């Protein structure tokens, strides 16, 4: 089952569908294949390094994340199905010119985990898709919508294999690129996250600045008082890879607020929302420390939020700690 056939099957269940979403998705898939190939060749092709450097032929070398952004922007515009694009790499949103405009808004991080690029650790692309509310000229309000309004979300991980995980709002499915065919094949149908996990994933180097509930939670992971075994710590520092492991093995991924970053680090539109959408679709939960992550209404395209996501029971525990703190305040 290729991803194309999978999406066409989904489309045939919706008689009103005219195939626009399938076309959009095929352009996203093309972008992922292109970036995957660039990531694999990065060392050879000298794509590692700083943007703005010139190579021996005097051509400007593009850093992988700049290249990936260009690839996705071009792929999305040329689909003819998008109207607003928000990328982590671009300060401003891109409004597609009217002749190429469609009804979808795509928010994305073209290459997340950039600190891992130069050492060959897994990195990825994250994306979320909204539809414009009606037929007006698109405005930023079309993307400043809560994550629960997303139609679809996914990520592609460039790791030991290239894996695309997608939800169109009815479960989560994983596809692996078969390089000999150049096709993504359904390898992980209907992914469900274990209800409770044995792994926690957080940058503990920030511990001295954490708030009470995060500190208590991590302490409980290491020194459980209920007779259970301590949890294992796994932290790659690439959200796509850390979330992918969490989705498959269960557990919790945390990027909390701290005294230095009161809103955490991760961006609401193209990191927190797509991953929260996938988690909920797989039976897990996602929480900001105050509310369900997908209920957040962003006011700026690059807004950040603390995030706790993963297995249902594990997120329930951190929610209880925040609720207790609220009660005692
Ligand atoms: P980036 O978008 O600049 O690559 O930063 C996002 C990344 C995530 O992939 C990862 O979860 C996080 O930053 C790691 O941050 P830290 O190095 O502070 O632990
Ligand atoms: Mg990022």
UniProtKB/TrEMBL annotation:
It is an enzyme of class 3 (hydrolase). The gene is cytfbp. Residues 1-189 form the Fructose-1-6-bisphosphatase class I N-terminal domain. The keyword Hydrolase applies. This is Fructose-1,6-bisphosphatase, cytosolic. It is found in: Cytoplasm. Residues 193-322 form the Fructose-1-6-bisphosphatase class 1 C-terminal domain. CDD domains: FBPase (cd00354). Belongs to the FBPase class 1 family. InterPro entries: FBPase_C_dom, FBPase_class-1, FBPase_N, FBPtase, Fructose_bisphosphatase_AS.
